[in-house]
Amino acid sequence: MTLSMAGVAARLKVAPPQRARKLKLPLRWISPIALVLLWQLASSTGVLPADKLASPSTVAQSAGELVANGQLGEAFAVSISRVFFGFLIGGVIGVALGLVSGLSRWGETLLDPPVQMVRTLPHLGLIPLFILWFGIGEEPKLALVAAGVAFPLYLNLHAGIRQTDPGLVEAAKVLGYRRIERIVHVVLPSAVPQTLVGLRIALGTAWLSLIVGEQVNADAGLGFLINNAREFLRTDVVVVGLVVYALLGLTTDALVRLLERRVLRWRVR
Amino acid sequence: MASAVSIRGLRKAFGPRTVLNGIDLEIAPGEFVALLGRSGCGKSTLLRILAGLDREIEGTATVPGTVSIAFQQPRLLPWRKVWRNIALGLHRPDGRAVALKALEEVRLPDHADAWPLTLSGGEAQRVSLARALVREPDVLLLDEPFGALDALTRLAMHHLVEDLWVRHRPAVLLVTHDVDEALLLADRILVLDEGRIVATHHVDLPRPRRRASVVEQRTRVLADLGVDVETAA
């Protein structure tokens, strides 16, 4: 999902059988735990020097300190708000364009070609331009997140609308539903599954864009915390920052899954 | 009394291909008409025109009252529970009571809160019928609604449709290529071939009809469809 613009209209996934997963879960923890133990062993015996990678216990300790002195919380809040507002901007743009181009022939004719062209650009590569356009403050970071969000949302919403079963639209037509009512009752609901796929991709890209954006001259946020730590060879703090990024990504993904399960509960089988 | 359906000089072409080539047809209120023909003879096109789904025609096709249609596929909205799909036909969201009554009529009283994807083909088709009927249509169009069902379910559906027709008395236009189905259900059978009505049969047999009672007329209808039963057997 990294540099390939993440904007592919991915296929809807089918959940793997639950039972097989449940049985395997405890066993699947064996190797990750063993790896952490191995890492700790390598650090304790000096095979792995602390200026290359701090030991798990040091990382845990630093995490505790950063939480206690409020640094992590502050950085966390800054980064979250960047993703939030960037996502909001990109979401509004992506959904608006997707609706126009999905619902109107003219919209599609005029909008889709340029959007399809621009989406082939790796959006993370736009940083130099964004710096020239927006300077080095908050704006280029928000713009980067917004760009990462808008495209997958646009593509999947557009595809979802276009995939509407014409038979269902016809059925509504015969029942006397006007165009706007058909859109509300038939077209938009049938685009929801594909749009949720887009939402998940968009959230993944949003975090990725944030991380890259925060490498550029940040004076606050998780990226700043990490870069600052690098200056002082504090690999423990770098790892803490990375773990927080990962947890944030996992959390938002889990939230979308939850949303999917709730909204798509009609897809029973 | 005014006709439920009135068609005069109806022509329809898709590009160079003429699908309907001069159809004249009157259907009386409450009459059950079956439209028989081979695939591609234009029967579904005629139904789509009557349903208002195709307006680029020559000639006139008027349906003064309300129209409902049940398609070969049930075409239920999968994200709406069964009763809400039926209420869709009422065009108002609070039609639960009416929907429940309709579900009882199609003998699915326990499925009001089911999701359409959990229904069998026959059940979904019955919901589709209920949705078409809650509007109390003057004309009910049936586009091979039993075509995708297994033989046993189809038999049950025939009885159900006849029941519902007797109770609500809409004019019915049933498109099918099943001669037995047409003979069991219809007052009048039209045979459509190459865009024209080439034969009309009145079926005056008493209802409910049994298979055996229609055998004699079956041979004549099949002959109009170009099927010679005597030699085919």
What does this structure look like?
The complex is a heterodimer of chains A (269) and B (233). Chain A is mainly alpha-helical and 269 residues long. Chain A is 75% helix and 0% strand. In chain A, helix 4 (71-103) runs parallel beside helix 7. Mean pLDDT of chain A is 89; it is low at 1-8. In chain B, helix 2 crosses helix 3 (96-105), helix 2 runs parallel beside helix 4 and helix 3 (96-105) packs across helix 4 (121-133). The interface between A and B is medium-sized, with 21 and 23 residues.
What share of the residues of chain B does DSSP label as strand, in percent?
25-35%
Q: State the low-pLDDT regions of chain B, or none.
A: none
Please provide the ordered H/E string of secondary-structure elements of chain B. Answer: EEEHEEHHHEHEHEEHH
Described by strand count, sense and barrel closure, the largest sheet of chain A is: none
Largest interface: A-B, 21 and 23 residues
Helix content of chain B: 25-40%
Poorly predicted regions of chain A are 1-8
The assembly state of the depicted protein chains is heterodimer
Helix percent band of chain A: over 70%
Rg from alpha-carbon coordinates of chain A: 22 Å
The SSE order of chain A reads HHHHHHHHHHH
Number of separate helices of chain B: 8
Mean pLDDT of chain A: 89
